[in-house]
Design a protein that fits this description.
- This protein has one domain: 3-Layer(aba) Sandwich (Rossmann fold).
- Strands 3-2-1-4-5-6-7 form a seven-stranded parallel β-sheet, with helices on both faces.
- It has about 240 residues and is an alpha/beta fold.
- The longest helix is centred in the middle third of the chain and has 29 residues.
- The termini are far apart.
Amino acid sequence: MTKVLAEQVAVVTGGGRGIGAAIARRLAENGATVIVAGRTGSALKMTVDAIQGASGKAEAVICDVAHRGSVEKLANHVMGRHKKIDILVNNAGVGSFTSPLHQLPPEEWERVLNINLKGIYHTIRSFAPAMIAARSGHIINISSLAGKNALANGAVYAASKWGLNGLTYSVAEELRGFGIRVAAVCPGSVDTELSPHVGKDKSRMLQPEDVAHAVLALVTQAPQSFISEVLLRPTQKP
């Protein structure tokens, strides 16, 4: 039986672990060829091995989204090898939840914004032209409910995600005329290394696979449908 994403090419950043790895696996399970991008080769290999072990198609590419040249090399690799991109999932991100903003070191501000926000600019700038030429494509930005709500001691993370939401909605308007759908997925507490777990019941937290499920729904919707935002909460508060 033909899988729903057969013949499609997907790029997932931050694909070595957690949410990114779950998304990469889910897209591959449904037939996509997945380029798993990230900074740590050993983690990427684990994701790719899991996909290939399940008879899926995947490859790993080292990429640091904070650096434009690294992202451009990724795009050149994808277009040179696969000639197209159908799905771009911007998942790479870092957290910062340990201090109020006035005590945050400047280098930490730069680190979070460079990865969580500037990194998405780099990937869209590098991949959107190919989607425009094809007049189709999906760009999924993994944001957070911290981009909707106040987050004490996490102001820089919240700022990056509020900014990412605004970027997403604006780019969606820029690209929808080309048949490209741009959406934000905003999860609440997810049981990963990134999320702060202090005082939370991990058994009630969202799992990476829940976010992957939402991404699959976005990239398999009917052509006339455009889900622009998904807010994803645990059934019970952790």
